[in-house]
Amino acid sequence: MPGYGDSPPVEMVVTAQGRRTFLDHVLQELGMQRPVLVSPSMSGRFALPFLLAHGDRLAGFVPIAPVGTKDYTAEQYRGVQTPTLILYGDRDTRLAPQALQNLQHLPEHRVAVLPGAGHACYLDKPEDFHRALLGFLRQLK
InterPro entries of this UniProt entry (predicted)? Predict the structure, then answer.
């Protein structure tokens, strides 16, 4: 992601609006229409502003213990009608509970908890992760 790790800093992604615009640009450049947005950890800083502004342009949303959930109100989350699978590992005792507490206000959500998995639950339990993800994807319109 721009501005993180070894990537060069990008002024555009300093604000939530800039990150939303950046993600919008990426999706447009890829020609994606109604994608399912999978958002683990730090990508929440990009995905959440996009979801709140353009959730109607997504077929689904899969937050995996994303950061930044506390930056928005329950009322803002309630306004999103995007089908959502809140996914996390039960050993992620720091970020996952906070994310769940905030994201549970999304009206079209379901929750999948991966037993024995930590913050990077998709790495700890890849078969369980893919089973949950594919089950969610099959139920989308």
Answer: AB_hydrolase_fold
